[in-house]
Inverse folding.
């Protein structure tokens, strides 16, 4: 058949020229896997030296290399009579169309994009080796001058060489395009998956938030029922006794119209008071639909009136120090809930620690353009070890019977996320001081 | 039976309740119902105990939850002075705590009356105590 006959039918000698040892090794592995014999040169100059000793069947060369680049290597090979028809594959990343013209000008046969796709490399090598015997001197020796983007290239390659190179360029471009499309599809799938996951996660988080909110509502409701019980027990007792007076006075023969009026009036007063209590609690639990302007001092008074019953019995004194009378634009009932949570905690701490001096001091003032409320208790303070955790969800020191661990977490959420303020805590000489800034 | 009967003047009652409105209402009606009895009133266990020491009443009617000194603590100290004192407990707590504080600690009280107090029930309890006292005196 032809002059370069090798013992094995498909085995050829291929010279790999690449300054990157990793890339060279990769090419070597792929091609030796196909049964070819491989030599490696680190740059064009080394390649020329190797070729001078022994002519390979094919050169696969990188373009950018120190000492002598791939174009120059091509040119040298094409100028040397004995090896001028040696097939050359240039590895390119196809970043510049001028590279194609420069390759043609230098006399390369094929293009392959980097990083190499195994299948494309093997198939191209096969094609290059098949054509190696074919004449590269098809007679058409005329040079073609090509101008591209202000640069001119003088291409002396034969037509079939030009077509081969352009074809492989095109193939490379098609391959690249396919890769791009695949990548794009993968990206889209990935994106969709990601979006779905984000959506699921968001939903999970929202459900978790809602659960927390529900728990905090229920905890607050539980406290409230306790408070209502405290608020109502005494007036109910008094009302019961007052009403029973009537038949007794009648039996004693003392039921005068004065006494009857007095009895009815005091009963009605109690009933009004209890009715007011219900209204207070119901207002408190009505969700805030929109932000409104409200006076901090009023919100505090309302909250204290709800707590009246449960603060009275353990004999907790509440002092209010009003330095300013600031107005907050925000969710009034949520703000009241925060106060209630903090006051309930103070109350529980004062009772649990059996403090003799049971005091809570609420101070209202303005700082800059912010309304500030501090709630300080005399319960000895929060242990340093848990200071950083008290606003965490589900963190409680009260035990599962009494605490849910959502009160302060929700308070922080309400003040910071819903109202754009700040809720912080520090210990004073006597106890803990919570600071609300809105 | 003898609901309108006037007890012997020697009988005395101590009423201890921290809510003044309730104390006033109860005292008013007790004074009318038992005009012959001497009635002493206190707003917490400590003043109740002091009154007990100076008057040694036969019947003590007391609330449980009170500031300064609660009803059970006061009863404890009163029993140390006069073990056969009759106790009528007024409580708003139907739960275990009263039981725990009294029966489980080894002493029960003569009568437990739930709040809101029904006068008829309180009067009946006092009458039973009076009957008991009369029996003891008769012996």
């Amino acid at each position: 058949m032809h002059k370069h006959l090798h013992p094995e039918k498909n085995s050829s000698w291929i010279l790999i020229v690449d300054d990157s040892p990793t890339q060279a090794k990769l090419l070597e592995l792929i091609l030796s896997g196909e049964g070819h014999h491989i030599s490696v040169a680190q740059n064009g100059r080394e390649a020329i030296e190797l070729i001078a000793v022994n002519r390979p069947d094919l050169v696969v060369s990188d373009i950018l290399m120190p000492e002598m680049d791939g174009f120059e290597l091509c040119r040298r090979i094409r100028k040397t009579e004995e090896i001028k028809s040696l097939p050359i594959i240039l590895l390119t990343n196809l970043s510049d169309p001028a590279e194609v013209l420069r390759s043609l000008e230098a006399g390369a046969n094929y293009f392959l994009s980097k990083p190499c796709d195994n299948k494309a490399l093997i198939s191209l090598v096969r094609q290059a080796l098949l054509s190696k015997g074919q004449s590269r001197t098809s007679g058409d020796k005329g040079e073609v001058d090509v101008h591209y983007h202000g640069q001119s290239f003088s291409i002396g390659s034969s037509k079939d060489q030009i077509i081969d190179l352009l074809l492989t360029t095109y193939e490379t471009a098609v391959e690249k395009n396919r890769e791009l499309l695949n990548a794009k599809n993968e990206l889209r799938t990935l994106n969709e998956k990601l979006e779905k996951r984000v959506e699921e996660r968001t939903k999970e988080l929202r459900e978790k938030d809602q659960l927390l909110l529900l728990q905090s509502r229920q905890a607050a409701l539980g406290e409230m029922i306790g408070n209502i019980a405290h608020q109502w027990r005494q007036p109910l007792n008094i009302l019961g006794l007052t009403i029973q007076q009537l038949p007794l006075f009648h039996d004693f023969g003392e039921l005068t119209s004065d006494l009857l009026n007095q009895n009815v009036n005091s009963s009605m007063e109690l009933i009004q008071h209890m009715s007011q209590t219900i209204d207070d609690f119901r207002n408190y639990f009505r969700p805030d639909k929109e932000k409104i302007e409200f006076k901090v001092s009023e919100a505090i008074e309302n909250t204290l009136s709800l707590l009246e019953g449960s603060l009275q019995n353990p004999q907790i004194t509440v002092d209010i120090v009003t330095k300013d009378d600031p107005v907050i634009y925000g969710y009034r009932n949520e703000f009241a809930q925060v106060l209630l949570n903090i006051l309930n905690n103070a109350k529980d701490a004062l009772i649990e620690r059996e403090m003799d001096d049971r005091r809570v001091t609420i101070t209202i003032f303005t700082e800059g353009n912010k309304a500030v409320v501090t709630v300080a208790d005399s319960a000895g303070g929060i242990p340093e070890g848990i200071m950083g955790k008290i606003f965490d969800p589900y963190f409680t020191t009260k035990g599962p019977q009494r605490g849910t661990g959502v009160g302060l977490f929700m308070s922080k959420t309400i003040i910071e996320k819903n109202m754009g303020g700040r809720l912080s805590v520090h210990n004073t000489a006597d106890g803990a001081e919570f600071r609300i800034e809105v | 039976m003898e609901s309108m009967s006037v007890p012997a003047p020697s009988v005395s009652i101590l009423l201890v309740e921290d809510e003044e409105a309730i104390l006033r209402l109860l005292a008013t009606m007790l004074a009318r119902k038992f005009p012959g009895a001497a009635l002493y009133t206190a707003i917490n266990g400590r003043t109740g105990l002091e009154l007990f020491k100076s008057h040694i009443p036969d019947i003590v009617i007391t609330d449980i939850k009170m500031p300064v000194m609660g009803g059970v603590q006061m009863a404890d100290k009163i029993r140390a002075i006069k073990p056969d004192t009759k106790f009528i407990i007024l409580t708003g707590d139907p739960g275990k705590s009263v039981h725990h504080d009294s029966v489980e600690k080894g002493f029960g009280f003569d009568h437990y009356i739930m709040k809101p107090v029904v006068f008829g029930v309180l009067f009946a309890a006092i009458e039973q105590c009076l009957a008991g006292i009369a029996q003891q005196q008769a012996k």
Summary: The CA atoms of residues 59 and 126 of chain B lie 8 Å apart. The longest strand of chain B covers residues 86-91. The two ends of chain B are 22 Å apart (CA to CA).
